Amino acid sequence: MKIVKLEIDENSILAGIDAVALVEQPAIEEEFMYFSKQEFAETFTDYPEAAVNAAKQGIKRNEAIGNKCATRVGKLRAQQLANREAISLDTVRRMRSFLIRQRDNYELQRDRKNYDACGYISYLLWGGPSALPWAEKTLRQAGEVFVKDEYNDLDDACQAGYKAIGLKTKNGRKVPNCVPIQNFEAVLIEELIKQEMFKSAGKLNGIEVYTTKEEAIEAAKEAGISGYHEHEKDGEIVYMPGSSHSEATDTLLQESFAAMDEQQVVLSPLMVPNKLIKRMDDNGEEYFVYFTEETIEKLAHKAMKDEVIHRVNIEHDGNLVNDIFMIETWLSEGKYDKSTNYGYNLPKGTWFAKYKIDNKDVWNNYIKSGKVLGLSVEGLFSEIMLSKVK
């Protein structure tokens, strides 16, 4: 398998973004999100009584050991829950994120009956085990879709001289895969190859499909449905969540459009660091390229400088579409990046953009219809990619 690390000279006229295309199949395999006309600004007090009691118990246990556990934010969260104060949707997101990250540590201390451990107490302060399913249910009702068991602390997870590449399983737990910085590029190449060799079966009619029944069943549970059914894709049997295709389709549409009204705004990642992207050379041979965090930053800055951020076409056809323009853009800063509030769990350095779609034809016939699902950058750097492969 041929893999090319793509490096760009931001000062070259042959390097840079020329336009952004609305596409059905984004190369980075990440779809955009819709935004409703009215922001979801509701507050919540309906969290379970068990979460209130857990917070109270956590406060009591923490006081008994001198309040040495949890940060100021964790202690404040416990007081809010114990008093059943109204909490915002953003706080619900933070609760879910914390409870997922610390769940294994809590369960470990619980099984050891080490009830004075900070891993046990801090989890109670954030509402304990019952708070997580409530938070996920609340976020789904707000129209949010999120990745299960995400880990948002990779940027700070390794000691000095090491850098994380995804997760690995150690003693039955998912932990950051920390490698020496000097070996980072070699290990990254290996991981990218593994991603391509062992990736999921992709999508069928816009719905994620899986290579095993177990994965489909787990995805169905996450979506609030049950069972699985079989389909044929490219001559292979794949498995789709839900006991029927209509059930899976209905769930997909509910999640995709629950937050969509007529604000006509989409949010999407444009480029993801170290994401393996398939390409073909002039001889029809398949190869892969990836962009580093540094290269993506250069491209993003150059796109702003060259004022090409509002140039949008459909499926890379070269015909610019009117009344579509970028209203916000940023590079992900890691675990506290605001993209996590929208359900994304992408690495530091991911380039995000938010576009306003004032073109009614594009909005109705391409966005709402599902004919296009994401954004894809295009530019002259494709010529440089091919030159590096030969």
Describe this structure in words.
The chain is α+β, with helices and mostly antiparallel strands and 390 residues long. Helices cover 36% and strands 24% of the residues. The chain has four domains: 3-39 and 260-389, no CATH class; 43-141, no CATH class; 154-192, no CATH class; 200-258, no CATH class. The chain has eleven helices and 18 strands. The strands form seven sheets. Strands 3-12-17-16 form a four-stranded antiparallel sheet. Strands 1-14-13 form a three-stranded mixed sheet. A three-stranded mixed sheet has the order 15-2-18.
Distance from first to last alpha carbon: 14 Å
Count of domains: 4
Low-confidence stretches: 36-41, 147-153, 245-261, 382-387
Q: How much beta, percentage-wise?
A: 15-25%
SSE arrangement, N to C: EEEEHHEHHHEEHEEHEEHEEEHEEEHEH
Rg over CA atoms: 23 Å
- Which bin fits the share of residues in helices? 25-40%
Number of distinct helices: 11
Largest sheet: 4 strands, antiparallel
**Shape field:** globular
In short:
This protein is an alpha+beta fold. Helices cover 36% and strands 24% of the residues.
Key traits:
24% strand, alpha+beta, 390 residues, 11 helices, four-stranded antiparallel beta sheet, three-stranded mixed beta sheet
Topology:
Layout: E1 3-6, E2 17-23, E3 33-35, E4 43-44, H1 49-64, H2 72-82, E5 87-88, H3 89-111, H4 118-125, H5 131-141, E6 162-170, E7 173-180, H6 184-198, E8 203-204, E9 207-208, H7 213-223, E10 228-233, E11 236-241, H8 245-257, E12 265-271, E13 277-280, E14 286-291, H9 293-306, E15 312-314, E16 324-331, E17 351-357, H10 360-367, E18 374-379, H11 381-389
Parallel strand pairs: 1-14, 2-15
Antiparallel strand pairs: 2-18, 3-12, 4-5, 6-7, 8-9, 10-11, 12-17, 13-14, 16-17
Helix pairs in contact: 1-2, 1-4, 3-4, 3-5
